[in-house]
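Troubleshooting log. The previous structure file for this entry was overwritten by mistake, so regenerating from the original sequence record. Sequence copied from the archived sheet and checked twice against the printout by T.R.
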Amino acid sequence: MNTLSLRKRLLLAAALILITFLGLAGFALDRAFISSAEVSLKNQLRTQTFALLSVLEVNAEGEIILPAQLPEARLLVPNSGLYAVIVDHKNNASWQSPSSIGIDLKDLEKEIQGSESFYRDGSSLDSPFRYSFSISWETEDNNEFEFTLVLIEASKHFAAFVDEHRGKIILWLGMVGAFLLFMQLLALNWSLSPLRKVTNELDLIEKAKQDRIQGRYPREIEQLSQRINQFIGTERKNMTRYRNTLGDLAHSLKTPLAVLRGISDSGKQVDSEELGQYVGRMSDIVEYQLQRAAASRVSLIGVRVNLSTIHNRVRDSLNKVYADKNIDCESNGFEDIHFYGDESDLYEILGNLMDNAYKWAKNQVRVHGYKLPESDEHPGGIRLVIEDDGPGINAEMKSRVLQRGVRADQRTEGQGIGLAVCMEIAERYDGTIDINDSDLGGARLEISLRSAVGS
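Regenerated output below.
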């Protein structure tokens, strides 16, 4: 199932937000303009009302008299859309403008004296507007007559005016929307350019034209590119290790297999003891290579491992293996220390280093654990210190015992791969192994491990 690209998602979201915003802005502007236009029309009708009142006269019988030439020319033109009516105190139309002849004016009522009202007869823009103004007129003989002057604006001018303004609003908001969408597209392309760049680099890596991501990227992508580079480097190291392991296994088995084949082809009686030696040798070779391959696995996602639990299990096992030596193992600093990485790696390191300490110690082994603080460059980790009171390691051998197959004492049983395996594991966790002299009289091995990525 195809999904929208990140660029299309952002562009669609921006377009929807922009359309919603411009729609709401257009609605608000339209409402504001209509309200402003209605206020303007009200003021216009009020002015026309006062103009009529300025030429209006009332005789002693209360008859309203207006001149033939009215201040507003539209009141003289039939069906002009502007009508004037005077309603007396009995709600009867005592006077109508010439423009209202033949037009049925309904719902005409006298307003309260001194009041005015303005409203629209209906909800559409074509509905007529009414402005009413009620007054009390005193004649020269001190007679008062109350009446209401009603002006009705029923022309299509208001609706046409609003429609014209709406067209302008739509045009301008459309132009603004198109401009903002274009600017948003430019900003989006600029913002997503690092993603396109890192994608192009990944394509080059797939085509073997470069071996890692080399560009500089924003902080959010920089972390991703670093993780990808770590992953690429780790996979290449693993591939190299597995390839080397298979090659070493084939090369190491070549000689004993050739000997066994020679014995088989000779037709002589096979010496079971000699045969057992070669079979044992082959078993050791396979076990060694499997151990090497297992130690080469790298986990980029760290699992929270309790250091105290691993240490206690290793210590209890070694106390049983070396029970005849009655080793006193002093352990400190393991409470509440956790390591984020592969549990098997931690077992391998503690098992090898503590086994060496027990093997060489006379009576005492000391194991300490420490936390490594976190920083911007490093995610934190642990430091282990293993000491014994054995003969120690001379200066010449300190630089060699970490190499595969090198043993401090050739007379001691072993293959010389324990410290080399620990070194390989430490390197994968950006760690180090230091060999010094202990104040107990033997060797002091200090190993630092950084937590795995993703912890």
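The chain is about 50% helix and 20% strand. Archived copy saved in two places this time.
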